[in-house]
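Quick illustration, no need to memorize.
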Amino acid sequence: FILELFFSNLQMEGSLKRERNDDEEGERTVKRPSTEPHGSTTSPGLYHYLAQIGKGWEEASREELEEVCEDFQQVWLGVGAISFMSSSPPSKLVGKNGLKSVERVMAYLYHTENLEEEGLGELEKLKLLPHSLQWSEPTRTWQALYPDRPDATTAKEAIFFRVTGERVGKDMAHSFSSMDLAREFGSGVNNTMFWKAKMRGYDIEIIVNAYNTQLWSGIVLRDYDSGMKSKAAMQCYRNKTEKGAGGWMNTSLNASTAYNLNRLARIQPGDFVLDPMAGLGTIPIEGAIAYPEAYFLAADYNLPALSGCLTNIKNHVTTNNIDVIRWDVRELPLRDGTVDIIISDLPFGHKHGTYAKLRPFPKNFLTKLAINLTANSILQCSRSLSGFSSPGASVCC
C-alpha cells in the first residue's frame, strides 16, 4: 500500500510538471514573433485602404474620409498616412470624383511605428518583408478596380509592377536610400509574387514609405481613364499632368493641399473667395469644384500664368462660379469690405527675390487685403506669416 501511494504521488508530480511546462511553452509561444503573414484579414464586404496625406493635413483628411467612406473604421493614423477600412468600393474613392484631401489611395499592405523593433533597419530584412505579407486582400482590392485585368494572385499571366521608395529621416535615421528601399523591397515582391519588374507601362505600383522610424506600404489605386499611366497619374493627377495631356497645365501646388486650404476655410454658400496670386489656379479651381454655391476669383499679374489658369478652368470646371482677372496685387481694384475669404499660396522663395527685397512686401500687401475683407472673414495662406493682425479678420497660416 505504501509503495502504491509513493508511485501515485510520483505520477501526480510528473503530471503537474508536464502541465507547468506546457503552460510555460504556451507563454513562450505567444511572446515569440508571429510567423503568420502581416496584415489584417478584412471582414467580408470591407476593403482595407491606406491613404497618403500631406504632412500636417491628417485630421482634415480624416474628416473627409468619415464623410465619404461608408462604414469608416480607422485602423492606424501615422505621420502623412492613415489606414482605414470601409465598405466603399475603390471606384468611389479614386478618380476625379473620389477623395480630394489625400495624395494617394492605396490597398493596404503593411505598416509599423518602429523599424528597429520590427527588425527592419537593414536592407536584408526589408528584402524578406514581402514574403511575410498577406497579399490576397490588397490584390482583391486592386482587382475590384480593374476587373478586366489579369488575375494578380496567380502567375498564369504576366503582371508587371514597380516599387517606388520614399525615404525621409532626420540625423541619419536610415542606413539606406530611397533607391535602396525600392530595389530591395521590389526584389522581395518578385521572389514572392513572381511579378515582373517594369519601370514604365506597369500594371501595379507599390509605394514603400520610410519616415524616421515609421514604415508603411500599399498598392496604388488610380483611375487609368485619365489616359495616364505614370506616377503623375496618382490621386492628384487632376491638375498635375504631363504637358499636353488633357489640356492641363503643370501646377507646382499639390491639388490635395489646395483642396485642404479651401476646406480649412469652412466656405459657406454665397461666400466671395479670392486668390490674389492664383498662378495656374490650383486653389480657386479646387474650391470651385468642391463648393459650387460659392464664388471664386482667380487673379494674377503674370499673363502666361493666367493663360494656363484659363486652360485649367476650361478643361475641368463645369460650374459657372469662377472668374479670372489680371491685376497688380499692390493696387487691388476692390471695394473695402467685399471679400469673405482670401486663400493664397504666397510666392515667396529664392526664385522670387532676396529676403531683404521681399521683407516689406507681406506687411503692405496683407494690410491692403485686410481692408477688402468683410467682418469676421478669413485670410488664409499656405505659408507661415507673423507680425500681422487686423480687426475682424482671422489669419490662418
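The chain has eleven helices and 14 strands.
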